[in-house]
């Protein structure tokens, strides 16, 4: 149930670009995340789209509190050309 709620929230953020970034990452990785990573992903979901997008795109530096291994995986996943949702 928790993972389904996270997946929905990842795909329904408000900013279409962030829907694609968060949603595609969740589609590809959510099932393999451990409890700590799930909590971290939930924390990222709560962030303002504009801030998160600027960090992922590299237009703003990532604050140390959010520059986590999970964030870097998500940023790299997006940078490497995430597959389209089917």
From TrEMBL:
InterPro entries: SDH (IPR005631), SDH_sf (IPR036714). The keyword Chaperone applies. Belongs to the SdhE FAD assembly factor family. One of its GO terms (biological process) is tricarboxylic acid cycle. Keywords: Chaperone. It comes from the Bacteria. This is FAD assembly factor SdhE. Pfam families: Sdh5 (PF03937).
């Amino acid at each position: 149930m928790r993972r389904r709620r996270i997946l929905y929230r990842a795909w329904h953020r408000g900013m279409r670009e962030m829907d694609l970034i968060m949603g595609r990452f969740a589609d590809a990785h959510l099932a393999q995340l451990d409890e700590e990573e799930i909590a971290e992903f939930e924390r990222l979901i709560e962030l303002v789209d504009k801030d998160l997008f600027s960090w992922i795109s590299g237009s703003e530096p990532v604050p140390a509190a959010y520059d986590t291994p999970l964030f870097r995986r998500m940023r790299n996943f997006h940078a490497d050309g995430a597959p389209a949702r089917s």
